[in-house]
Amino acid sequence: MTSDELHSLLDSWLLHLRAERKSPNTLKAYGQGVRRFLLWAEGEGIEPALTRSVVNAWIASLIDGGAEGETIAGWQGAVRRFSAWLAAEGELATDQLLGLKRPTVDVKVVPELTDEQIRALLATCTHKNFHDRRDEAIIRFMVETMVRIGEVVSMDKDEVDLSTGTAVVRRGKGGKGRRVPFGPQTSRALDRYLRLRRAHRLADAPNLWLGDRGKTLGYEGAYATLTRRAARAGLPDDFTPHWLRHTGAGRWLGAGGSEGGLMAVGGWARREMIDRYTRATSEKRAADESRRLNLGDL
Questions:
Q1: What would the pLDDT profile of 178-208 be if each residue is shown by its tens digit?
Q2: 3-class secondary structure, 153
Q3: pTM of the model
Q4: Burial of 216 (0-12, 13-18, 19+ CB in 10 A)
């Protein structure tokens, strides 16, 4: 199968995934992974055959080129899923990537913010204007509920219930919705934002989060806003809003929360995802637990 044919079928696959209600970020990541494979094959002057030998050669080149471990695994997973779909649709006789293992690569440890860093981030939102009230509410909500930034910007205003301290995430990853709880501090921040929101020119819009110049707040706008806040707070240059999700997970376990509760609130389906998201502070939690157990007291 030629590269042009695979590019065309990629569009069909992404259409299929949209019908399965995959998130925009998932579609973007899967599409990027397959396109990277096709681009590599074109650069090598070889047919982009979806075989183990060719895909493994591509993975080896990514490792040699210094790509991040999770990026490599994600792109390989996209190509494996694409191959499986092609076989299921009858475009390929067989799925030769069936059973191909996830590459063993170094996993990047995503930092978790300390309480002092969280306070510094919130300290950039101390004014009573619309933007500060909105951004404080977003930061508190993301840290406490561990909601992904893509899920946050997709929320509608009627999905937040201040009286019960809960919000419904209807557009979760993979189309899986869930209900998330939040406490009094986050409730107060959301209430302050919602009261100012009433004066916005798009106050009647269903979207929970509103932006500038008569627009709603989308993914790119929220991402840029939070990274600017982080810079002002003196956080590391490589900060991304996803750190807030990792931070929330680490704080949950550090406070003694259960793994089952964390999975339910965070929207994780697999236990191993907890280890991935809380790896940065796992040693500190283990040391704290050891001190509480005091097993050396004989």
A1: 999 999 999 999 999 999 999 999 999 999 9
A2: helix
A3: 0.68
A4: middle
